[in-house]
Design goal:
By secondary structure, this protein is of the alpha+beta class. Helix content is about 25%, strand content about 25%.
Amino acid sequence: MDVPTDFHWVVVKHILRYLRGMVSHGLHITHSYSITLHDFMDANWVGSIDDRKSTSGYLVFFGHISIS
């Protein structure tokens, strides 16, 4: 932010063009009386036989809507 270059300006214009094309898209959130927070997680420790790496993932719901 102190020394913006031409590359930064090109990237900003790209982002603005993308956002302009996405105006009609969005998340449709419906009214719900459920304000509970649910989270789910799964992990596969050392699941890959080749490189012994682990894999994990999670999902968070606020009411009936997935937020993360």
